[in-house]
């Protein structure tokens, strides 16, 4: 009797429990109950980390005991792949990042669930009706497509409003235009990006880091005061300080834009991000004993990270090399003052078969111009390029398939001397050096100029005289010349044209001057390298004495006139350069005045007859040939 009573009570309890679950399910409109309810997004981030740690941990004996040996083998392999992706998700590989982000996406999807309460959970974690600056920025980049070549460019153009600061007001204006009708799926994807970036990724700069199109460099921790510098006096006075860990800037077209809408929040977070940037480095971790690291990421980014005591606060510079648009050089110069004339001049200089240096300060576009000049070369030539320590030019990546290109990179295990030996055995015609900045690289370059038909390179030297001096010092230091005059003569024979780049206050990059370096020994008429004004001012006897001590003369060919916003022709190229042009092209080399006249005639015809830009370029080329 008692047993039957207990059994009846048990059945009633089970029935009541099932009825309760059914009613709860109906009331929730089929909503899936989340595994846990997290009060804040920070709690969700902590839960994500616990979940990922659990899914990537491997306990072989426990796995075999739970699911058997065969299934344990498969699960162990999957977990090892996931653990490897999590460990390397910030090294620049899109595959490891996508795999890690999918783990985060799966967890957030399980938590958010489906149905009515999914909207409540999303709203509870991120308020898209009155979002923070960070949320607005992530939403804009997601909607416009920051991982697309034009997406971030469009987003940036809408946000910065021609000012050096991307403000909260400008971001909110763009957000109100583009992101007011976000779907639940889009909101969940934005949440996933924020959670991933703040746990395993690169924090507030993760989207910037992987954006494509126009960002040339990301700077973190390079402005504001170190947290340790905030004094009690500042607190009492109520002075507002912007700390270095909240400093984020981007360089676009040579201009640096401050982004106060993004900040790391504290020293711990910026340290996490900076160490994540360089953790793939073979040189070890960033420490007080080793406070500076330079790392080349898988996707070509160059990362310079520094900490105390080398600098007052942790900072990093992330140089990106995907912002350059490879195009016809005539089209690249089409919309700049004097651009059509300059494009024709550059094409003529390349065809002289003379060595060409591209010089200028950092971020003036030297590498971009060097790549553009490569497109002017006939594909019948074999190009051999050298880079010092980091991939930047990557000509094989960007030149068409019909070009024969081999890219070499100097490293601890592949020295300049070894590189030159390999170059000599590679059957090349054209030499290219990405950046010449050390005595070893100068000597490699000078050796290449003797071996190749034509050589191109970039350098940070501020004047042509300074470039020749650096190369001469390198030759003397390595013992390749007996005295300075002999070394200088050797250098001068290798340096023919110097294309100098500059950038104005508005960030416009332009060719400020083109010079030709002429060896005194190659001049038959000493006075020919001097203008009429110099002959009158100095006198022939004075010039003769001067030339007994000089080994070269720098002749300016064209120079940009800022008042006229056009190029002035100062001198014509040398006879030796004209001979090289005829030898390569089979045509008589046009003078700079002829190039200018042909450009002006084509423009006049185009304007009078209404021809298209394409027809205009065809007319110009036919006029020059």
Uncertain stretches of 5 or more adjacent residues: 25-34, 235-239, 523-528, 543-547, 603-625
Q: The CATH topology of the largest domain, please?
A: Rossmann fold
Please indicate the count of domains.
4
The rough form would be described as elongated
Regarding CATH, which class of the largest domain?
Answer: Alpha Beta
Q: Kindly report how far apart the N and C termini lie.
A: 114 Å
The largest β sheet comes out as: 9 strands, mixed
> What's the arrangement of strands in the largest beta sheet?
9-8-10-11-7-12-13-14-15
Describe it for me?
The structure is a single chain. With 625 residues, the protein is an alpha/beta fold. It folds into four domains: 1-30; 33-120, no CATH class; 126-323, Beta-Lactamase, CATH 3.30.450.90; 329-520 and 552-590, Rossmann fold (3-Layer(aba) Sandwich), CATH 3.40.50.300. Strands 9-8-10-11-7-12-13-14-15 form a nine-stranded mixed β-sheet, sandwiched between helices. Mean pLDDT is 81; it is low at 25-34, 235-239, 523-528, 543-547 and 603-625.
